[in-house]
Amino acid sequence: MDLGFTAEQESFRIEVRDWLAQNLERPWRVESRDPSHDADSLVEVRRRWQSRLNDAGYLGMSWPQEWGGRGASEVEQAILQEELIRADAPGIVNGLGLGLLAPALIHHGTEEQRRRFIPKMLSAEEIWCQGFSEPGAGSDLAALRTQAEPDGADYRITGQKVWTTFGPWSDWIFVLARTDPEDRHGGISFFLVPIDQPGVEVRELKQITGHSEFGEVFFDGALAKGEHLVGKVGEGWRIAMTVLGFERGAASLAPPASYERQIDGMIAALRETGEYENPSVREKVGQLLVENEVMRANGMRTLATLASGQAPGPESSIEKIYWSEFHQRLTDTALDLLGPKAQLEAGPQGALQDVNWGYEYLWSRAGTIYSGSSEIQRNIIAKRVLHLPTAR
Ligand SMILES: Cc1cc2nc3c(=O)[nH]c(=O)nc-3n(C[C@H](O)[C@H](O)[C@H](O)COP(=O)(O)OP(=O)(O)OC[C@H]3O[C@@H](n4cnc5c(N)ncnc54)[C@H](O)[C@@H]3O)c2cc1C
Questions:
Q1: Looking at the chain, which residues constitute the CATH 2.40.110.10 domain(s)?
Q2: Which of 93, 166, 219, 369 to mutate to test the pocket of ligand 1 (most atoms within 8 A of CB)?
Q3: Is 8 a catalytic residue?
Q4: What is the pTM of this model?
């Protein structure tokens, strides 16, 4: 196992840093707190940023060449993510499309589907959301009840999805729907559905953070064209598992890079008030720094596994639990150490700190739920890593 980077990888890092120095106008913490922005204009900032990354060839770097790929390794992708976070670049708008749907189309879609959808996904001309979860189907996804009824060569979708990230801004949604009520797994199919049509209604959901990145999506006989069925009828579950494999899959260095910035912000705020001189405060911060380094080393270990051509396998569940639970410990500690000051939102003049701790604390609650909750990850580890006996 090699925990270092090669000279070639280091020169890629420098290339990314140079590009960021020339192309990133304002860090996200400044952009996102500019009072002239509302939620919609911030989405536009992120759309333009994604398009710029695409023009520079930094999206889909490991895909086949015709879809913008350039034979990049997982390590280069992880370096890119690390540098984007260190520079505090905006997030892209099509994370779900590029991270989940595009690989599913590359593996299971038709040539027409790839040509029609992937370029606009990359350029952020079309934004995608993921329509898997339903009110009665989250961890137990196969319990989903949204129906797809044949209508000539096409399908009519009826049902409800929930927790649909970016739903309020999306143009398209990839949907798992039931084509056979009798067959739990084999009765699910995978459709690409345009949102702007009669029969689709998106309602915003307000989160505990006060933001509304989510939606509920209601389908009432919405049209899914036959040519927009991915794979064959009944193959939706298998395709969904590929998609979720990408979601839960390869570790990157992104979480520890992001938490490092937050810990630095905490240290800066504690220094300002002199509290950083208190040994018990330093001990708590030191503990976080050590845990963050352990996370980074573990991420490097996974990257080394990937670089040697092996898949990370169910061990990625260990990383999911670690980064999501660490974020909660980090924000708990920040609120504890910074006290009421942690509740102040840092303003454009840098009122207190770079980190909006109140927001981070609330947002960190979601990390142990999405992409498979901590309990589900522990079940995977028990079964597939530790091979413990399971209850029937
Ligand atoms: C921030 C965020 C973004 C999301 N974005 C999307 C999206 O874009 N598209 C989408 O389709 N979905 C999305 N989701 C939904 C997410 O996938 C589900 O919330 C998740 O799968 C859990 O399902 P649930 O909320 O229905 O909880 P449930 O499955 O009802 O679980 C409730 C509790 O029971 C526990 N539990 C359930 N089953 C077991 C078991 N077998 N063993 C032990 N414990 C168990 C869970 O761990 C949890 O604590 C998002 C969720 C969040 C929080």
A1: 128-232
A2: 369
A3: no
A4: 0.93
Structure confidence by residue, pLDDT tens digits, 214-238: 899 999 999 999 999 999 999 999 9
Query: Using one digit for the tens of pLDDT, what is the confidence trace for 304-314?
Result: 877 777 766 77
Give the residue among 248, 229, 355, 265 at the shortest CA–CA distance from 312: 248
| Yes or no: domain 249-385 corresponds to CATH 3.40.640.10 | no
Cα(6) to centroid(ligand 1), Å: 39
Phi (first) and psi of residue 321, to 5 degrees: -60, -45
For residue 201, how far is its CA from the centre of ligand 1 (angstroms)? 22
CA 130 to ligand 1 centroid distance, Å: 14
Rg of the chain over Cα atoms, rounded to whole angstroms, equals: 22
Q: Which CATH architecture has domain 128-232?
A: Beta Barrel (2.40)
For the chain, give every residue range classified as CATH 1.10.540.10. 7-93
Q: Model confidence over 152-170: pLDDT tens digits? A: 999 999 999 999 999 999 9
Q: Which residues contact 359 (CB under 8 A, 6 or more apart)?
A: 209, 345
7-93, what's its fold? Answer: Butyryl-Coa Dehydrogenase, subunit A; domain 1 (1.10.540)
